[in-house]
Amino acid sequence: MTNAVKVRFSRDGDYFHYLWAARRCLKLLIPNHNLVAVAIEGASRTEDAQDAPGSWEEVVDVAEYYGSEKLSEAQKVSYIQLKHSTRQSDKPWTLSGIAQTIKAFADRYKELLDSPGTTDLASRVEFQFVSNRPIAATLAELLTNLKSSSNKSLPKEAQEFRRLTGLDANKFKGFCNCLTLQGRELNYQLLRTALSLDTQDFLPDNDVDAPIRLKELVHTKALSESLNDSVITKNDVLRALRVSNEEELFPARSRLESLENSIQRSQEDEIVSQIKLAAVPVLVHAPGGVGKSVLAQRIQSSFDNESICIVYDSFGNGDYRRRSQTRHRHKDGLVQIANELSGNALCYPLIPSPHSDESAYMKAFLSRLRESANSVRSKNEKALICIVVDAADNAEMEAELLNASPSFPKDLLKEPLVEGTRLVVFCRTERIHYLDPPSRVQKLELSPFEWDESAKHLRRTFPQASDHAVDQFHRLTGGNPRIQANAISQYRTLSEVLASLGPTIRTIDTAIEAQLEHALASVKESIDQKSRSKIDVLCRALAVLRPLVPISVLSILSGLPESAVTSFATDFGRPLLINEGTLQFRDEPVETWFRNKFMANDQELEGFIQILRPLAQHNAYVASSVPYLLLEAKKIDELVALAIGRGDLPTENPAEKREIELQRFQLALKAALRAKKYVDAARLAFLAGRETAGNSRQRKLQQQNTDLVADFMPGSVYDIVYGRIFGGDWLGSQHAYEAGLLSYLPQFRGEAASRLRMAYDWLANWSSLPDEERQREGVKIADIAEMAIAEFNLRGADGTVDHLNHWQSRTSFTAGRLLARRFIDHGRFEALDSLALHANAHPRLILAIALELHAIHRFTPEDAAQRAFKFLSKNTKRVDQFDFNLESEYLLAIT
What we know:
By secondary structure, the chain is of the alpha/beta class.
């Protein structure tokens, strides 16, 4: 055999190693699996400090760490040697063939037993020998016997085995119990196919490049450049699958209110029983306010521990109507539900892909649903997986409004029910037609409270309520839980509650109308007689505008003072949520009532649009809302003309103008295509493409000036962050800019801290990349400065100094200059003084601040300047006056 052929066979072995390890790395994505790290070619350098690398590491091709990379904290550690043979794949391994491996494993076992603080670690360590060749039957039988026997009288083969280990009898048996010999593993050709299939299990469709990227990740960690960082973590695998944020795995978390103090319904057991017996999807319907969302959550708690119930919230406190918080798409709902199932260790996660369509997501979801059902039924054949979708009608209404594909609940109802699963969809009775359920779907109606339930509800707040009072309360509210809750929350005494409800029975609509009348009475106290009719304009605005509706806009439209609008919302009570100068509906019944009561017909809607359009040039929110109103009024021609003509755009902020203009193009394009106006669609597509290029430049400008965005576009901060428009060259860099932007606004600082932590996690991941990849995904000075500013806004000067201390001198000095310029632009001179005084161990930051202050004829505090001068005096070097390098910048700073 020539050397060239031998090299090829050796390459086969390497390839086998990479593919096998890549498959194992996918387990890092599985929740509750507890695998936290996979080390390639040796053990992790994060193992306890006293454990210096030993000769035993030469046989460790892969090390797996569960719970922690630190041995003292790990739940389990597996040391694995891999062996592959192309020409002798059928030749069994004998004891002599793996003698070197056995000895090395035993040496490591001995070290662990002798290491202080690891007395119990031996029981948490596993040694594996894995090969595509078979294990000799005699060897496999010998190991089995050694694990079970007392080892007092060993046969000759067993004595040879023990001699290889150099362990006494007790330690030898313990070692044997930790040892696994696994033969007949797939060869490298079959592993290549298996890796592709495994990777596909995590994605909605087949990404042919994903397994290649995973294999290359392992290959890179096996090279000399990764000698000091050979560990693969979850972030590394997500990077290979092109995911930069774990939030992408949970895009629509539930915002349903807690079930504290919820009342068990008399119907509950019967409905749950029918759901469990149903062989078809179940549609639970009821009028508004009867308690569908509460029942959806109570269903979740009614299943036994071996069954799993996932509740999906389609309403999301009204955020389902926001472009940045959509909940109706397959990539929203199906990904969220699948990954909640995965979080229960029932199936693989569903990693979203930008190129996958609705069909791909549905197939991937059903596959995971089937896998989850099989998982729970393997433990108990009667166990079930139940998927509950609350407010499915809202999801479909939003999809229709946007001229989008059908919502995922509507499509899900048309799919055959997976064996061992149940599907429950909630919607309003009058909206069943939106979901167009197949005839096979079983419909169950939820009834209002019975007398006993109304009694419990009332007596929780008024425990002394008599049966007569309960009779009145139950009769006047029609047993509607929402009417009851609203009435109880608005009044202090029982007599006031009953008086507000009487004297006749009220439906949910009449009850909410009564609340509006109460709010109206309060508002009238602050306005004159002529202005009282303006309350209708306020209600109409709330009905047709998308959340979050600025109070200032409502004030302009209605002519009421902002304080009166706020009073109206406060008096209306819990269904309206006031959030940082905006209003939104907290409750779906209230939103529905508003939209039914105040939604104008086509002629009235035209008049409303005419009221709003003059405001568009001066208000970005209104400018972004007008296209949706035109779409709702079915004025497609006007919508197209508005987009093409570029009229009614805000003039004060070019950035907001461009963003709104692009949204108009996209909305008008979809509407034109749906209306088969193909000529208009072609023009819009051309303009949208051109605008997209300009939009990229705008987003770059916003990213470079997060401080200005926070100052001049505070109302857009939420959408900018959740629109994920920021980002740099390194994966996860968007979190740095999101943290910087959010940190300027007090109400978002908790979230800013979370984003900053994510940025640091990805930065640590970047630092472990090979040199070539780090250069390709370079961290820019602006990235570092943005994180430094976020640190200051969140933690103060100490946080900024700590952050900059982690970077090289030139880098931190330049980043410090950029930070100083931003602070100077905002007149934050006290902040700069604080930074300079806290930079005791970082004189280069003092110099950076001094250099920028010098440009505007200001100076650093005297103490800080003295420290910087001492630093320069100890680092003397001749600087040519024309040499503008780092030292010359230092000189400029000190002079």
